[in-house]
Specification:
mainly alpha; Four Helix Bundle (Hemerythrin (Met), subunit A); 3 strands; cell membrane
């Protein structure tokens, strides 16, 4: 059964952009209530998506299609199945709470309205990624997430660190976007479709094609840059320069999850091979361990959480690579669990920073008495991160262990990596939950106080959501996990989630081992941090420093090229342009025999071109030609600059008369206008110089410029003669004559050609003229600054 058509699906990704445009105006009108008003947009999307859960749980799908570029068969196609529904629900639900949090977090900020607009656009871009069925539409929204994240990370543009983090994220993720576009084009050429829903049954076609390796490389690079996989992970911690609401949204449900979604979506088409599994499991496992160690090395709470996001992204990629019903179900569960607890923890950290004035874990302690609500929210989120029973994180951990229990040595090695990575994440969760809130009270830069309710509602609801979801495993498995897993695996999946715990099986013992390792990591956190920092210092470089070196080298190289090519000498610029013109004229003529028509016209050795044997010009035509030659000679022999300018006008006027005599009045009129303007403008410009002087020029310049002028003039003349010497092809004029009235409704064919058939060309010319006119107006209206007293005294006689 095909998908159900619903035009509202396409509006889900458009609505946040419309609200983003209105956000600054709403903020001016409503002030502090703007965030509550704007939060209604993601809230409405969330409610609408909730109504689709029963349909998707029963195996249904929904689609919408908007005509985009019909000439090339491109449509904006949107598609909702189990996978896109889970991601869209997470984006809209967390986005609603983030909007409320943002309004309170940036209370009193002069650019709060702009920030809310950026956040809504960020949300719309991510919704577009997960709802798009067309690969081109996905690429478009993919790049929009890059642009909007750049604006959000660099929101506090006065700080160099914020600007650097924004540029770094933009550069790396944009490189991935280019790989995504290349992969989409190759897939379209191989399969004849842009739509991912149509690719589900074409896995064998892609696997057997000679382009499978190229496709795999393109999509893996795109996903790895976006989802911060090792060694392309270093941009994500630097993105913490963004305000806390951005970090909470970016790390939980947007931006970094786009790569995970892409890998999950393309699994039916590109997955199932040994190289797919090896690459995802290998890079995912390394990223998991690296991120967990990176979190233990940090002391800033936001940086700690950022590093755990890297680890969690690696875990998600690893699970997609494992595949199978257990691995994919664990991926879906862990995605939801991670989104809930990570957004909640970031919001709680923002509340700590707001209330205590610092995020340094080494100078925090005893905040639970003065910030009890923040502590409760942090504890609820941390419990799901730890994976204790009756939380959604527990079921995610059980599923990933169940898929590897009793496997071969590869499965055993992967299981060891999972237990080690999860154990370190448990230790980090204990650090975030205990160190700032329990123990002795430590003096802080600000007297600790609770954040506003809008900043606490989000972490409380998200932390509670992780517990409630863990109490409803049957509903969670049947209505969300199973449909999403089926969309990834391409076959029906039965859920086996239940509240019943197997206390005798190996899974609980693996969980206990993970918790025990986490407690050990927590107790030895300071020693581990010291050891890791010593190792980092001994290493001396990181991927971050390599990026800086590459960017510095690129800037130096660009500067050298600029100094070489843009040296500021206008005469050399013109010489290069005309030399290139000469090559462009004579190169094809010589290479393709374009001068073969220059053959003797008679047996007497007359080598004149046949075209010149036509009846001679009339006397008045000779007169106009003589006037043109006279003007040219006057320009060359002009004793002063003023005479040269006027002589140039004479030569141009003669050229306009030639156009008029040979039946081109429109062109003649244009030439007259150009000549008049040229003379006037040159006269104005030259008033700053002495017009009664003659510019001395070395003989070498005369030879260079004269040679170029003669060669280019001869080339243009020969090319025109060659064109006129050929047979006349009337197909294009006939087409213009036949279609100018019925299609363009114009009787002046020249005007129709300029406005309709060459519409974009003419539009570009108008834009150039308008830009030049605006620049001239700005220069003419620029007032000279009054001279300082010292300067006036110096200028006085």
């Amino acid at each position: 059964m095909g998908p159900t058509l619903d035009a509202n699906i396409g509006l889900l990704a458009v609505a946040p952009f419309a609200a983003a445009v209105l956000a600054p105006f709403i903020h001016r009108l409503a002030g502090g209530l703007a965030s509550w008003i704007l939060a209604a947009v993601p809230a409405g999307i969330f409610v609408f998506l909730l109504g689709l859960i029963p349909v998707v749980a029963d195996g249904g799908t929904m689609a919408a299609r908007l005509v985009w570029v019909p000439a090339y068969g491109l449509d904006l196609a949107f598609y909702i199945d189990g996978l896109s529904l889970v991601f869209a629900l997470t984006i809209a639900g967390i986005g609603t709470l983030i909007m409320l949090y943002s309004g309170a977090y940036l209370a009193g900020h002069v650019h709060r309205g702009r920030f809310l607009g950026f956040m809504l656009a960020f949300m719309g871009a991510m919704l577009g990624v997960v709802l798009s069925d067309s690969l081109l539409a996905l690429f478009m929204f993919w790049e929009l997430t890059t642009i909007t994240s750049f604006l959000l990370i660099g929101f506090d543009h006065r700080r160099q660190a914020a600007r650097r983090g924004a540029i770094q994220a933009l550069v790396l993720t944009n490189i991935g976007g280019m790989f995504l576009l290349a992969g989409a084009i190759v897939i379209s050429q191989q399969t004849g479709t842009w739509e991912m829903s149509a690719l589900r049954g074409m896995g064998a076609v892609l696997h057997d094609s000679g382009f499978y390796g190229l496709l795999l490389t393109c999509f893996l690079v795109a996903a790895f840059t976006k989802s911060a996989q090792f060694p392309l992970h270093f941009w994500l911690p630097n993105a913490m320069e963004a305000p806390t609401p951005v970090s909470a949204f970016l790390h939980s449900a947007t931006m970094v999850q786009a790569g995970v979604y892409l890998l999950a979506r393309m699994s039916p088409s590109l997955g199932g091979t040994a190289i797919w599994t090896g690459m995802l499991v290998g890079f995912g496992g390394v990223t998991l361990v690296w991120g967990a160690l990176g979190a233990l090395r940090q002391t800033d709470l936001k940086q700690i959480l950022a590093q755990t996001t890297i680890a969690s992204l690696g875990l998600l990629v690893l699970l997609i690579g494992l595949g199978g019903s257990y691995g994919i179900a664990a991926m879906v569960l862990y995605f939801v669990a991670h989104a809930l607890y990570k957004a909640g923890l970031f919001m709680a950290v923002g509340a700590v920073d707001h209330g205590a004035g610092t995020r340094e874990i080494t100078v925090l302690g005893g905040l639970a008495d003065r910030m009890p609500v923040t502590f409760i929210a942090t504890a609820l989120a941390a419990l799901s991160m730890i994976g204790l029973p009756l939380t959604i994180g527990f079921f995610a951990k059980e599923e990933m262990y169940a898929g590897l229990a009793g496997g071969d040595w590869r499965g055993l090695l992967t299981l060891i990596v999972l237990v080690a990575g999860n154990g370190m994440l448990v230790g980090v969760a204990l650090l975030v939950m205990i160190r700032p809130f329990l123990g002795e009270t430590v003096p802080t830069p600000k007297k600790p106080q609770e954040a506003p309710i809008a900043m606490l509602a989000g972490p409380l609801l998200l932390g509670a959501g992780g517990i409630v979801a863990g109490l409803l495993p049957e509903w969670l498995g049947h209505d969300l996990v199973a449909p999403a897993s089926a969309a990834i695996l391409g076959r029906p999946v039965e859920s086996h989630l239940t509240l019943a715990l197997d206390v005798t099986g190996p899974l609980l013992w693996l969980s206990a081992l993970t918790w025990g390792m986490g407690i050990l990591v927590y107790r030895q956190a300071d020693a581990i941090r010291t050891l890791l920092r010593r190792f980092e210092g001994a290493l001396g470089w990181t991927a971050d420093t390599v990026f800086d070196a590459v960017m510095f080298g690129l800037i130096r190289f660009s500067g050298a090229v600029t100094r070489l090519l843009h040296h500021g000498r206008l005469e050399l610029y013109l010489a290069v342009v005309f030399a290139a013109m000469a090559v462009a004229l004579f190169g094809p003529l010589l290479a393709w025999g374009g001068l073969d028509w220059l053959v003797p016209a008679t047996d007497l050795g007359d080598w004149r071109p046949r075209l010149l044997l036509l009846p001679g010009p009339t006397p008045y035509e000779w007169g106009v030609a003589g006037l043109a030659v006279l003007g040219l000679a006057a320009v060359l022999a002009a004793p002063t600059r003023l005479i040269a300018i006027l002589s140039l006008g004479v030569q141009g006027t003669a050229l306009a008369l030639i156009f008029l005599l040979f039946g081109a009045p429109d062109l003649a009129f244009t030439q007259f206008m150009v000549e008049i303007l040229s003379v006037v403008i040159l006269t104005f410009l030259m008033t700053r110089l002495r017009l009664d002087d003659r510019d001395p020029r070395p003989f070498e310049d005369w030879m260079r410029d004269g040679t170029l002028a003669l060669v280019c003039g001869a080339g243009v003349s020969l090319l025109l003669m060659l064109v006129l010497n050929g047979s006349y092809d009337s197909r294009l004029p006939d087409f213009f004559s036949a279609t100018s009235v019925p299609l363009a409704h114009g009787h002046n064919i020249v005007n129709v050609i300029l406005v309709d058939y060459r519409g974009f060309d003419t539009l570009g010319e108008i834009a150039v003229v308008m830009g030049a006119g605006m620049a001239i107006m700005a220069l003419l209206r620029r007032r000279k600054k009054p001279a300082l007293p010292d300067e006036r005294r110096k200028a006085a006689p």
